Amino acid sequence: MKNFLGGTKEEKREEYRKASPITYVNEGDAPTLLLQGTEDPLVPYEQAFFMATALTKAKVPGRVELILGGGHGWGGKQRDDSMRGMWEFLDRNLR
Predict the structure, then answer these.
(1) CA distance 12 to 95
(2) Cys-Cys link to 7, which of 12, 41, 64, 68 (CB 3.0-4.6 A)?
C-alpha cells in the first residue's frame, strides 16, 4: 500500500481511509460474496473478517468463504468449488 498511496498509513491516513472499501459500506448495499485465500501474499485473509464485520454492522447480507491454502487466485478443484458457489450466490441474490 505504501507504494500505491505514496506513503505509510501514518503519513497518509486519509488516503488509506479513502482507499479502503470498508469506508463505503452502507445499509442497502448489494449482497456481497467474499472469497479469500488464506495464503494470499497481497491481501491478508484477516481483511475478509474486517469487511464481514462492516457488512454485518450495516445489515448487508452476504457470505465469506476462506480458501484454505489459496493465494491471490487459485485453480483446480478449489476454483471449481468457488465458481459453483459464486453462481449459486448470484442466482439466489440476483433473481
Answers:
(1) 41
(2) 12
